[in-house]
Amino acid sequence: ARRRGGHFATLFLDLDRFKQINDSFGHAAGDQVLIETTARLKSALREIDTVSRPGGDEFVLIVHEAAAEGAETAARRIMDEMSRPFTLDGTPFTVTCSIGVALYPEDGEDVETLLRSADMAMYEAKSLGRSAFCFHQPGGNEDLRTRVRLDHAMRQGLAAGEFSLHYQPQVELATGRTVGAEALLRWLDPQLGEIPPQ
Q1: Is 55 exposed, middle or buried (CB count within 10 Å of its CB: 0-12, 13-18, 19+)?
Q2: Contact, 122 vs 128, CB < 8 A?
């Protein structure tokens, strides 16, 4: 691609809640799901494209000679293939996936950068509710760092007793009667003050 001034897309795919399959059906069944997933990925892509499984329930796909439009087409075909039910021991079930997309050369010009960009985009797809695909967004690395810092600060705040429980009444508008309450956890950080919901 560098020699020809071309493009390609790196797709980082992770099966959603794969651990539940292993826990419910056993690891042999999980292996069958991985084998069938591989077959579905191959059928969704062209012969010139590449499907690999670096480990676990993660797959890395290379969509050759594809810019954003070609990558989106491939991601949509994969989502369609994965939406068909799987069957184990006569039990049908759905396996969804989250896909992150990084484009060469826009999102990286080496393997490490492209994989990291696609991986971050995949986590963004998961944060949107799974069963989705996202393109890498510039600045996403800083967003991820911010989330990691916030996660760490929350764990420290929990250990330090900085969280407090509050109740918010639920009121029936027609009668003005209190019908329930929501339990809310509030975080008061000593340096940052009250932290709003994220």
Answers
A1: exposed
A2: no
> What stretch of H or E contains 114?
helix 111-127
Q: How far apart are CA 81 and CA 107, in angstroms?
A: 26
First-last CA distance in the chain: 40
Q: Mark whether 57 is an active-site residue.
A: yes
Supply the pLDDT for residue 144.
59
20-51: per-residue pLDDT in tens? 888 888 899 999 999 999 999 999 999 999 99
Residue 58 to residue 36: CA distance in whole angstroms: 14
Calculate ∠ Cα 124-126-131, nearest 5°: 125
Catalytic pick among 14, 16, 49, 57: 57
Q: Considering the chain, what is the average pLDDT of its residues?
A: 90
Which residues are CB-neighbours of 195 under 8 A, at least 6 positions away?
187, 188, 189
| Dihedral Cα 23, 27, 33, 35, nearest 10 deg | 160
Q: What pTM does this model have?
A: 0.70
Is residue 61 within 8 A of residue 51, CB to CB? The reply is: yes
Cα angle, residue 31 at apex, residues 28 and 37 outer, rounded to 5°: 145
